[in-house]
Give the backbone structure.
Amino acid sequence: MNINRQRLLDNLQRYGQIGQAQETGVERIALSEEDKTARDLLKQQMLEAGLVVSIDQIGNMIGIRQGERDVPPVAMGSHLDTVYQGGRYDGALGVLAGLEVIQSLNDQNISTEKPIALINFTNEEGVRFAPDMMGSHVLAHPELLEEILESPAYDNPEHTVGNQLEAIGYKGDMPCGSLKLDSFLELHIEQGPTLELEKTDIGAVEMVQGIYWTRYMIHGQANHAGTTPIRYRKDAGYAASEVMHYIGDYARRADSKVLTTVGTISFEPNAINIVPERAHFTLDLRSVDYEALKQGQTDIDQKINAVVLEAGLSLEREEMVRFAPVHFDPSIVKLVADGAKDLGLSVKQMPSGAGHDAQMVAAVCPAAMIFVPSVAGISHNVKEYTQPDDLENGANVLANAILSRTGRL
Ligand code: HGY
Ligand code: MN
Ligand code: MN
């Protein structure tokens, strides 16, 4: 089965204008007005495609296309929320290609034995509320719902996941995890350089690396920049810069198996002539190797404690995310790889550097991912781009994998 290329491209273009950032980017932060606008459009399109639409308690949007048998659906989907100044394909491709598969099945009057589910997961990016992959995480672990509904926005503790879901009208009543799934497939841009460099059409993703997110606050003492001799200073800013350098060097060692990123840092009171009293920063630590991930966290925490102790400062530390590496179901990975080959496409089995909803859903059903190339490997950037042929290829691989999993009538 082939999807309708132009309809998919037009829809990506349409969603790209919801929260448009600069020329080609998108800023559609989870539970924002822009997220609501995109959700409302998706709901309308799901209903027009004949899906039965439900919203669960964490705001996941689930559209079901009935099958001939009343059994768990084969699911596909991703996320419509983005990072700040993000791209138009990260997440949206997986949701809109899934919608396109449904629309194409309808156009071609294809019925399936098993039902099909299309899911838009809440807050995959985690740039406003922790944890990331939030909606898929709670779908897999419903016992976390109450705690995560209380999760405060980084920039405004008055805003919680719960009250912001209510504010946009997507705090649903479907119990999280109540829908059992047969399997799950997520189409996503690679967000890295591998497929383009190796001139390969499709990535059959075998695993997702582990992700640890930690937030730190170093406490010093505000003081006058001109009158305070160095030996009297309790300079939180200087300590933070020493730690940041260690963190950066840690990933740059020749034998390093981890990636480290300090993506946010801020000082208080943050004035040119005041020795910083407090330094806030975050650590994003990733590895395909679970032992290296845990060792990296231990080493970096030891260094931070030593620097803080040595400087007579104090430290606050909060573990935001602890996700172990996830390996996908080999039979679903094979479905992707074989499907790509059947379409005459080149395919590479590979890991994912980025976190994805599929890594959460894999806890409750067999799951895997389909990657398409990112131009210059750029993502989480307004210049994120994927060629139309690659978008179409990815959607066709998704369509055929779903069809073969559902059993075409
Ligand atoms: O952080 C990640 O890897 C994903 O984009 N949420
Ligand atoms: Mn994504
Ligand atoms: Mn992302």
